Structures are given as C-alpha cells and as structure tokens.
Amino acid sequence: MPEHDYAYIIVGGGLAGASAVEGIREMDESGSVLLIGNENHLPYHRPPLSKQLWLGKKQVGEILIHDRQFYDKSNVTLSLGTEVAGIEPDKKTVRSAAGKTYHFGKLLLATGGMPRRLSVPGSDLDGICYYRFLDDYLRIRKDAVEGKSALVVGGGFIGSEIAAAFAANRVAVTMIFPEPYLCNRVFPYQALGRQMRIEHWDNALNQGKQAGRNMAGAGEAFTYMPYFFSDLFEFGYEAVGEVSADLETFADWQKENDTGVIYYLKDRKVRGVMMCNVWEKVEAARALIRRGEQVTPEDLRGVIR
Ligand SMILES: Cc1cc2nc3c(=O)[nH]c(=O)nc-3n(C[C@H](O)[C@H](O)[C@H](O)COP(=O)(O)OP(=O)(O)OC[C@H]3O[C@@H](n4cnc5c(N)ncnc54)[C@H](O)[C@@H]3O)c2cc1C
Fold first, then answer.
1. Is the pLDDT confidence value at 92 over 90?
2. In DSSP terms, which residues pair with 172 in a beta bridge?
3. Taking the domains of the chain in order of start, what are their residue ranges?
4. If you measure from the C-alpha of residue 206 to the centroid of ligand 1, how many angstroms do you get, rounded to a whole number?
5. Residues 102, 30: Cα–Cα separation, whole Å
6. Can you point out the beta strands (E) in 37-177?
C-alpha cells in the first residue's frame, strides 16, 4: 500500500519541475502536489553555474528559482535528496530508492539530462567532474584558484563557458574537443514545424509550466518558440528559431563580430535570429519569424538593433 497519496507528483527538482508547480497552481489552487528531487537543494537555475557565480555577479543564495516560502504558500510538499527508483504506472505509484511509495493522480517526469560520460580508461578518477549540479560548482570552486590548472573536455557552450570562468579566475585552462571550432554543435536543432530536441533554460521554464497546466486539465498545445543564450567573457548572445549553419545567413553588424544580428533564411523567409550583444529583442525576433514574409537580406538591415 502506498504510504502517501498526492493529486500531482513531479519527479525532478530542476527548472521544469519548479515551473510545473506554477502551471498546476495556475489551474488548480488546492490539489495536493509532491515535488521529488534527488539534489539536496531547492530548485535553482543552472546557467549561473558556469557564468555569474564565477564572476562574482551572483551568490549561491541568489540562484534559487523560488524560496522555500513559495512552496509552503503553494501548499507543495518537497521531498529533496530523494531518488526515485521505480514507477508502477498500473498502480499509479512511484517508489523512492529508500523504499517509500507514493500514489499519484497525475505524474510528471522532469528528470532533465546528464553529461555524457567518457568511455575511456580513467574516466572516473578523482578530480574529474562531470559538470552539471550546484554541488559540482561548490566542489570545484574552492580548488579553482590562481596557480592551479584545469583541463576542460568538451567545447560546447558549457565547456566554453566554464573555461572562460576558469580563465577569469586566473586558472590555466586547456580545452580538448573533437570539433573544428568551439560551440560547433551548439545549434544542432531544427525549429518551426519539425520535431526538435531542445535542452535550454527557456524551454525548461515554459514547457515545464505548460506540462503543469495540462496535468491540471488545461489541454493546451505547446506552441511556444523558446530562445537560448550564452555568455563568453564580454560576448553574449540570445538566439531564437532555426539557427543552423545549413541556412543562408545575413549578418547585420553594428560592430564587426561583436555587436549585431545574424538572420538565418530559407526560401527567403527568416527562420532564425541570433542577437549578439543586442538585448531584449527576442520578442521582435519571434514576431519576424512568425510573419514568415519573403525578404531580401537588405530588407533586414537595421530591423533589429
Ligand atoms: C552549467 C550549465 C549552464 C547552462 N547554461 C545555459 C545557458 O546559458 N542557456 C540556456 O539556455 N541553458 C543553459 N543550461 C541548460 C539549462 O540549465 C537546462 O536547460 C535546464 O536546467 C533544464 O531543466 P530541467 O528541469 O529540464 O532539467 P534539470 O535541470 O536537469 O533538472 C532535473 C532534476 O531532476 C533530478 N533527477 C533526475 N533523475 C531523478 C530521479 N530518479 N529522482 C529524483 N530526481 C531526479 C536531477 O538531479 C535534477 O535535479 C545550462 C546548464 C548547465 C548545467
């Protein structure tokens, strides 16, 4: 027999899980909610783990998605530090690794992703960190000081950002990655009318909330167009839509390779927009993509600044 009964159970205490709580509460003020997460922290934002925390722009206490009061006021039970080890859909139960069972009316799996582990000898040696969690940050932050050196394996956006963070803290960094350029595979997905895999912050925020609303009966399609962002030293960008190297591009630089907007076109229509050091224009970019008008690159000059 399950020990506890909840109208909604969310497995995964990340951004999608925390956003699902908001979605549920938008639709259902009182149904009982249990959020189970295996980390020992309240749900927090991960992007600062490779950026602001290293640059003194944020402290650990400032990266929480919500403080504890929010969950108390929303009447949400938190079970942190709890690993879910099994689900029995027929019985509508989940089981924790410690052997507790919980009965659910609706269940959301918001368990996120994990870094790919290297399958080479020695890949589990001490001193190797597969970087994803706040505990990883807390563990390596104290060792990452001037005079130390670090090897970063992987040249995607997290590898590149963490290398920049080390460098900013005067740690000597060497990077190893198989692609010809940094962030070569940062934009692998295809948007607009196709299936796509998106692993970015804004998607977790909005898709999590939508999942919560739909658990509570909203029945709405998820049509949101997420954006993503990254910061490397003084260079930051936000991008939305299909930003694939296969598309025709038009770069409208205000300052060459530093400040400007890159448009990605297919059949003369804007499919994606990447804004480099140009901020708060994501909505304008979404509107341009949605309009789907045929344009020439010259029509686009100055459209987003
Ligand atoms: C260092 C770093 C920097 C990033 N920077 C950016 C950025 O600049 N821009 C951007 O767009 N995105 C960025 N991201 C990606 C962004 O953080 C993710 O898109 C977001 O965290 C996804 O949220 P999620 O809730 O889906 O998954 P997660 O954040 O992975 O959360 C899932 C949670 O579920 C828990 N869990 C998993 N299995 C179980 C289980 N069996 N039982 C209980 N709990 C479980 C996990 O431990 C985790 O706490 C970054 C990610 C990292 C790691």
1. yes
2. 149
3. 4-109, 234-300
4. 14
5. 18
6. 76-79, 84-88, 93-96, 101-109, 149-153, 172-176
Nearest CA to ligand 1 atom 38: 111
pTM, 2 dp: 0.93
pLDDT digits (tens, 9 = 90+) for 174-199: 999 998 888 766 554 444 556 667 88
User: Cα separation of 69 and 303, whole Å?
Assistant: 43
pLDDT at 3: 74
Residues sharing a CB contact under 8 Å with residue 278, sequence separation 6 or more, in sequence order: 238, 254, 259, 260, 261, 304, 305
Q: For residue 76, what are the CA distances in angstroms to 36, 94, 259?
A: 10, 17, 44
Residue 36 pairs in a beta bridge with 11, 79
For residue 137, the CA-to-ligand 1 centroid distance in Å is: 14
List, chain by chain if needed, residues with CB within 6 Å of any ligand 1 atom.
Answer: 11-17, 36-39, 46-47, 49-50, 83-84, 110-113, 131-132, 158, 199-202, 204, 228-230
Question: pLDDT for 274-299, tens place per residue?
Answer: 999 999 999 999 999 999 999 999 99
CATH code assigned to 4-109: 3.50.50.60
Q: What is the CATH number of domain 234-300?
A: 3.30.390.30
Burial code (b: 16+ CB inside 10 Å, e: under 16) for 180-207 equals: eeebeebbebbbeeeeeeeebbbbbbbb
- Which ligand 1 atom minimizes the distance to the CA of 199? 19
